[in-house]
């Protein structure tokens, strides 16, 4: 098999992860040394990747391993050390070495990625690991590890078909990351949800710190102030020295999050893909005339569309290549909105915001890049 075929094969390994206790038993049996690396865990609905990025820029540690998902362009982005993705040859070596185990125990893609990440981090003598929860918390494979501190960014309506029908259900699922004597922090602002999280933390045998936002320059959306505040709180709880915030501000970048791809006219790409993410986006709405929106079938599309329409911008729906794409024709009829192709969206010459899905954001960024090349 070629490298591309191996990646494609791994990406077909969908399904639910095994309980963290079972995954930890496998780690202890085969790669117990990886459990010794100090680590911080980040859960939540929106802002996990940004919080991890702030942590990676602020933590005063020479070698920092980051495990995150999903990726934008390359599967290797999920496993990084000091902002550099795992080299293809290392990924392939680890995949080949452990494929028999993956097949024997029917690893999901997420479990296999995490397994390879842990080994690669250990091989490179990582001083600190930053682990982003994939889905929920209590059943997420990352919860199998030991942590200096764990955090929850916020609770939003995403993956509700798996996590529960209400925000309270989602909050309980995310609160599964809480562990006895492992300090925890959150930047959640909803009073009812915050109270629920505090109660879940108490039941788990720990306390929950509420982190305040930290003021940033006007060039940052407001929600990044909350993500930065959480990152600082987690470093404090983990007793890890923090580098100057100004230094981190200058280096901060998270692709597909309010990413400006053209200044004149202003064109912006944002991966907001659930109601809470769209609400945060609308509160920091860039000065654009049109919104190109595309959404996957398992998201709360009507609620997001209604909120975007409230901004008064011209809104169009965009078809792009995804098997998980929502029924845009039905949404078009419901809201009387035009539907255009990705090619038409990429050809926009005015000021525009592209949003609604991380996959759509990646498609736009890739399309714009190819257009510039040609």
Care to give the gist of this entry?
The chain has 374 residues and is an alpha/beta fold. Helix content is 42%, strand content 15%.
Can you describe this structure?
Strand 12, helix 13 (about 330-335) and strand 13 (about 340) form a beta-alpha-beta unit. This protein has 2 domains: about 5-250, 3-Layer(aba) Sandwich (UDP-N-acetylmuramoyl-L-alanine:D-glutamate ligase), CATH 3.40.1190.10; about 260-374, Protein-Tyrosine Phosphatase, Chain A, CATH 3.90.190. It is an alpha/beta fold and about 375 residues long. An 8-stranded mixed β-sheet has the order 4-3-2-5-1-6-7-8, with helices on both faces. It has a 6-stranded mixed β-sheet with strand order 9-10-14-11-12-13, sandwiched between helices. Helices cover about 40% and strands about 15% of the residues. The relative contact order is 0.12.
List the helices and strands and how they pair.
Blueprint (H helix, E strand, L loop, with lengths): L2 H8 L9 H11 L8 E5 L4 H11 L5 E4 L11 E3 L2 E2 L2 H17 L4 H15 L4 E5 L16 E4 L7 H4 L3 H8 L9 E3 L4 H14 L3 E3 L11 H16 L7 H7 L7 E5 L2 E4 L5 H9 L6 E4 L7 H9 L4 E6 L8 H8 L3 E3 H5 L5 E4 L2 H16 L1
Parallel strand pairs: 1-5, 1-6, 2-5, 6-7, 7-8, 10-14, 11-12, 11-14, 12-13
Antiparallel strand pairs: 2-3, 3-4, 9-10
């Amino acid at each position: 098999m070629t490298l591309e075929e191996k990646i494609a094969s791994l990406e077909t390994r969908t399904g639910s992860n095994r309980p963290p206790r079972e995954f930890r038993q496998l780690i202890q049996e085969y790669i117990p040394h990886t459990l010794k690396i100090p680590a911080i865990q980040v859960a939540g609905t929106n802002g996990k990747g940004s919080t991890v990025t702030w942590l990676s820029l602020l933590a005063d540690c020479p070698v920092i391993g980051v495990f995150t998902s999903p990726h934008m362009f390359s599967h290797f982005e999920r496993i990084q050390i000091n902002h550099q993705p795992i080299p293809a040859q290392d990924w392939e070596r680890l995949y080949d070495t452990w494929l028999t185990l993956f097949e024997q125990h029917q690893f999901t893609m997420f479990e296999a990625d995490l397994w390879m990440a842990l080994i690669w981090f250990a091989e490179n003598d990582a001083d600190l690991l930053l682990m982003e929860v994939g889905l929920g918390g209590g059943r997420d494979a990352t919860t199998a590890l030991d942590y200096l501190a764990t955090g929850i960014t916020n609770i939003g309506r995403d993956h509700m078909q798996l996590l529960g029908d209400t925000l309270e259900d989602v909050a309980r699922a995310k609160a599964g990351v809480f562990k006895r004597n492992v300090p925890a922090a959150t930047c959640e602002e909803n009073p009812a949800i915050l109270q629920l999280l505090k109660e879940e933390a108490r039941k788990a045998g720990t306390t929950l710190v509420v982190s305040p936002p930290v003021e940033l320059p006007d060039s940052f959306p407001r929600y990044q102030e909350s993500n930065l505040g959480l990152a600082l709180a987690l470093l404090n709880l983990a007793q890890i020295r923090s580098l100057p915030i100004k230094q981190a501000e200058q280096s901060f970048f998270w692709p597909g999050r309010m990413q400006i791809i053209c200044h004149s006219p202003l064109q912006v790409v944002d991966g907001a893909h659930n109601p809470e993410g769209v609400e945060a986006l609308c509160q920091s709405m860039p000065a654009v005339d049109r919104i190109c929106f595309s959404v996957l079938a398992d998201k709360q599309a009507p609620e997001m569309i209604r909120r975007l329409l409230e901004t008064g911008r011209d809104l169009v729906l965009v078809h792009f290549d995804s098997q998980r794409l929502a029924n845009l024709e039905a949404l078009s009829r419901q809201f009387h909105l035009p539907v255009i192709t990705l090619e038409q969206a990429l050809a926009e010459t005015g000021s525009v915001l592209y949003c609604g899905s991380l996959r759509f954001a990646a498609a736009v960024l890739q399309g714009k890049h190819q257009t510039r090349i040609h």
